[in-house]
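queue> pop job 88
queue> type: inverse folding (structure -> sequence)
queue> payload:
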């Protein structure tokens, strides 16, 4: 094991987590607008209702729904991850402060 230390700038890490959450919200908003437009446009079946259009519909619809669900999921997960980063930073800072206090008390007892 190396003697390398991990240095955390809590304010910077919190900002990064908040930015990540905001990015997730932006992805979610874009999905709502652009994805909604895709759903609306495909809902009228612009490829037609003949045999060729029906064949296209059978293949296309599954892919469309998969992509739109994934898009929404990415936005949601980014938002959650940003919040998780902020909570992890806060927990790390609290742990460091508690450990520093314990070490200080142990040193005072000597």
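queue> result:
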């Amino acid at each position: 094991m190396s003697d390398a230390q991990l240095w955390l700038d809590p304010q910077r890490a919190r900002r990064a987590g908040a930015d990540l959450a905001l990015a997730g919200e932006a992805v979610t908003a874009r999905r709502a607008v652009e994805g909604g437009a895709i759903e609306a446009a495909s809902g009228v079946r612009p490829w037609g209702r003949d045999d060729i259009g029906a064949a296209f519909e059978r293949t296309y619809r599954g892919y469309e729904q998969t992509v739109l669900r994934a898009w929404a999921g990415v936005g949601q997960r980014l938002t959650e991850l940003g919040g998780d980063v902020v909570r992890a930073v806060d927990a790390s800072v609290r742990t460091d402060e508690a450990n520093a206090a314990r070490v200080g008390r142990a040193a005072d007892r000597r």
